[in-house]
Amino acid sequence: MSDKDYADFIHSLETANYYLLIPVFFILSASHLVRALRWKILMGSMGYKPKLSNTFCAVMIGYLANFAFPRLGEVLKCTILGKYEKVPPDKLVGTILVERAIDLLSFFIVIIISLLTQAKVVGAYAKDAFNKYVLSQSPQMAIIKIAVLLFIVVGLFLLLKYIFKRYHHIVFVQKIRGIIKGVVEGLMSVKNLKNKWLFILYSVIIWTCYVGGTYIGFWAIKETANLPVLAAFPVLVFGTVATILMPGGIGLYPILVMEAMQLYDVPEIFGKSNGWLQWSAQFIITLVVGFICILILPYLNKKKNEDGTGDTP
């Protein structure tokens, strides 16, 4: 940054409305709580009924772990519930994969809403990105990559099938087969949902909270306070891409948010400062609530640990 840009950046942070952290805290915490409720529905389809408190704590500790190592949180979530609720972790892995698939579908829906409602603003950007990253690629190379990927998948499937049949008596092979069977059972949990419409409603609420939290974040500094409500959709898309590419979006989130806001003629320096504020709010919420969950989780299960009992499916 130039000296003037740096001064503007610091000034925008110093004059920001930090009271907005309060509603954002409750909105994003609510989204995490609803995510825990949605996860319970998937587990319920397999006959398991973990406590909401344990499920919520597992979700928040998982988010906290993801800031340190990508996808570590997914493993940790399964481990925590496996310990306190006696739910087989391998089956939980399947439910996590289902959740990620639903989130990916929801993300694409948000992208479509962004393109339909903000076509004049993001249309040209989307067209340039499509030409650069899709049409500019060699079709022959894309076909070769897909063919190689399919060959590897089929090859692994046939190899595992042969190993399971030929060496089924070996304990290690039996354990691997059990893990795969559990993952598949977790994936199939979506077929046995008893509350499909509630599951869909929870998914809508989660992403509505994300959009709402993003829009409230616009009010943090005066240079972005006048952005329209629908601008929250493309900004959320850019921010989500950052969290996919980097653990928790560290470093990249403010940059991509700034690029999204530049489409609305927000100066680069103020878009970046708003991006830092929004990322910091998410980080602080995850940090505070995550550590609280770490501290209270043993206490919540104190009686269960003393009795040596747990919830039964």
Structure write-up:
There is one protein chain. This protein is an all-alpha fold. The chain has one domain (3-304). Helix content is 77%, strand content 0%. The chain has helices at 3-14, 21-44, 52-66, 72-84, 89-117, 119-135, 139-166, 171-187, 196-218, 232-245, 252-262, 268-300, 302-307. The protein is globular and about 70 Å long. 32% of the residues are buried.
What's the helix-strand series?
Answer: HHHHHHHHHHHHH
Shape: globular
Number of self-contained structural domains: 1
How much of the polypeptide forms β-strand, as a percent range? Answer: under 5%
Quickly describe the structure.
77% of the residues lie in helices and 0% in strands. The protein is mainly α.
Helix and strand layout, with pairings?
Elements: H1 3-14, H2 21-44, H3 52-66, H4 72-84, H5 89-117, H6 119-135, H7 139-166, H8 171-187, H9 196-218, H10 232-245, H11 252-262, H12 268-300, H13 302-307
Helix pairs in contact: 1-12, 2-3, 2-9, 2-12, 3-4, 3-12, 4-5, 5-6, 5-8, 5-10, 9-10, 10-11, 11-12
Tag the structure with descriptive keywords:
globular; 13 helices; single chain; mainly alpha; 313 residues
